Amino acid sequence: MGELRWDDVREWFDPVDGCLHDGCVDRVGPGAWLAVVALVREKGWPFEERELSLAVWPAEGFQVNFFESAGDYDVLFDIHVGELQGQGRLDLLSAFLRGLGREFGRPVALAFEGCDPSEVPYLHYDPVVDGFVFDREP
Question: What residues are paired with 66 via a beta bridge?
Answer without folding.
Answer: 54, 77
